[in-house]
């Protein structure tokens, strides 16, 4: 009898859940929404409570689910529908989602219309001071997370209202301190390209004793990397003694990593203000744009002349305000990952404007090893093809070589985040920087996002314009004399994104250079993952925090050996 009652009870619960279940979603703009409503609508379903679903999308296996669709010309109060035909990640179709309880949320990533100088009109998400992040971009609309029972067989629809708005951000200038300054300029070059006002900004770490030595003029070290909300890794106060250390870092396998980061920042401040530490201007640039959190610091058909704008507009203004020496022999550049590629690219494309680059774990510096793809020989980016089998190419690994996701996984996620290369993420920004402009005004795809089929004509354009190893090989007769002694590259041999593969090829070329020999350095970290910067004495979770510690003393060595006769090597050594 008890078993019968239990079965009847579960039957009632199941029928009730089925009656309340939903199988599709409608998203409504609040009636008070202002402005044009063009952009990307995103819908999230999560099995995890306690964290908003919009923050739980990733490449790895523990990602939650999302769907995306383009929206154009909508008005306040109107609705858009997600149904069984909407494209998703990681499940492609809504019909593939298992029936069950989920937390759901919607977000609208707003686009702006640009009428560019090349004659194209495009709709893209302008950076609004957050560093091109769709989750937090000011003005983006989102809904309150809601728990529902989803069943793809249900004919009912769930209404979600976009009645919340990401707030504006505080003025970066308010974060300035005695040592950290903020510089922002309107770029004439970029404004002309984009057909609207465009700005560049930078955090400048000024030397200890700057005010006490008005006669001093300083070398400049350009620290390239992702969008910096403030100057990273420098703190004038130590971490609190009672700072919480209970949080566990999955990436590094240790507890209390946030306190380690804070302590390293304070330790750098102590070094910076010590009597013997070299005195420089250290610069971190904010150059977020409609495609990504930075521009890759080169001129690009799709992004505009960011390389020239940084080199000939922003850096001279910083040197003017903060007494930089302002000559190529006294400028250096370094960085890791994106910043590593930028450091090497800046040195290659502006060989007379920098006296050395230190490139750690750089993004692919030859497209013969575009992570796991040879763009010039492979036909498909997602698979190795055999006569009877396709093997997926890995996209990310851990230090043991265990694959965390495939290259196709990463691109599928970006495709749902944004069509036409508008995801604001890694593969799309490489494409935006390196590709020619397509007929529709958006970057011409290097490969088909769905199939992975590579376009050889686009690959050839990439090769001639942005393959750093190819450019060095092609132009070594003229570039070599300007670059000897300036190139330093560091990478872990278990880089999570296989970036060491391109470094191996570059090293093979550099070792054979003649007339002149490159006289630089290439080094690898044993079992080191992404962001290893050349120090074999420290674990990776420490070395990634010490770019300034590592390279500023190396820069001093280079300055003392290479400065021209009569150069100022004294005023800044206070």
From TrEMBL:
<protein>
    <recommendedName>
        <fullName>Esterase</fullName>
    </recommendedName>
</protein>
<dbReference type="InterPro" id="IPR029058">
    <property type="entry name" value="AB_hydrolase_fold"/>
</dbReference>
<feature type="signal peptide">
    <location>
        <begin position="1"/>
        <end position="19"/>
    </location>
</feature>
<dbReference type="InterPro" id="IPR050583">
    <property type="entry name" value="Mycobacterial_A85_antigen"/>
</dbReference>
<keyword id="KW-0732">Signal</keyword>
